[in-house]
Amino acid sequence: SGATLTTGTNALTANAGLTANGTLDATSQVVTVDPTAVTGNLSGSGSASFGAGALTVTGSCSLATVTAGAGTIDIDGDLSGTAFTAGAGALTVNGNVSTATFTGGAGAIDIDGAVTSATGFTASSTTTAVGANFTPGAFTHNSGSITFDTTDGSSIGGFAFNTVTVSANKTMTGDWTCAGLLTIDSGATLTTGTNALTANAGL
């Protein structure tokens, strides 16, 4: 507890999961956490930083603080914790994102589940996709595009967006302002209710 594990250029594979109550510094190699049971997740009250190496977690990631780098990150379960800072590598989360603060980088972000980050969610500066409810406490579009896809009937909070694509049936729960183009794909429905919708670059 409170210690630091620095992997250097060495690969680290944790087949039964990894708990970091101190600091995991993995900035130049591949870290694979592949639990054989549901309890074998990447977890702990400490922090971890990742660089050019890929990170694969077949469970959930609940480390308190994570700083990503240029490597890709794939998380099969949920992403939670205090703060997650994405990097230049692509991030895929097959579950929900409930970190208190989520900060996107330049890498593409694909979240299949819901986003409920209480303090705030900053999108990727390139592309972000969210499959279920999108109701963070605050939202910063980071000049990127966001797509709401996958799950019909999801709720999307009221925020200022850049470019938005709606490719499934979604319901607005607040006012939207889109600085860029708003696209509603064929077969998709965006229900505004009593909320205002402003698309400055057209629909």
Q: What fraction strand?
A: 35-45%
**Low-pLDDT ranges:** 34-40
Oligomeric description of these chains: single chain
Give the strand tally: 26
List SSEs in N-to-C order. Answer: EEEEEEEEEEEEEEEEEEEEEEEEEE
Q: Calculate the mean pLDDT score and round it.
A: 87
**SS summary, helix count:** 0
Structural class comes to mainly beta
What do you see in this structure?
The structure is a single chain. The protein is mainly β. The protein has no helices and 26 strands. The strands form five sheets. It has a ten-stranded parallel β-sheet with strand order 2-5-8-10-12-14-16-18-21-24, with no helix packed on it. Strands 1-4-7-9-11-13-15-17 form an eight-stranded parallel β-sheet, with no helix packed on it.
Layout of secondary structure:
Blueprint: E1 4-6, E2 12-14, E3 18-19, E4 23-26, E5 31-33, E6 42-43, E7 47-50, E8 55-57, E9 65-67, E10 73-75, E11 83-85, E12 91-93, E13 101-103, E14 109-111, E15 120-122, E16 127-130, E17 139-140, E18 145-148, E19 154-156, E20 160-161, E21 163-166, E22 170-172, E23 176-178, E24 182-184, E25 190-191, E26 197-199
Parallel strand pairs: 1-4, 2-5, 3-6, 4-7, 5-8, 7-9, 8-10, 9-11, 10-12, 11-13, 12-14, 13-15, 14-16, 15-17, 16-18, 18-21, 19-22, 20-23, 21-24, 22-25, 23-26
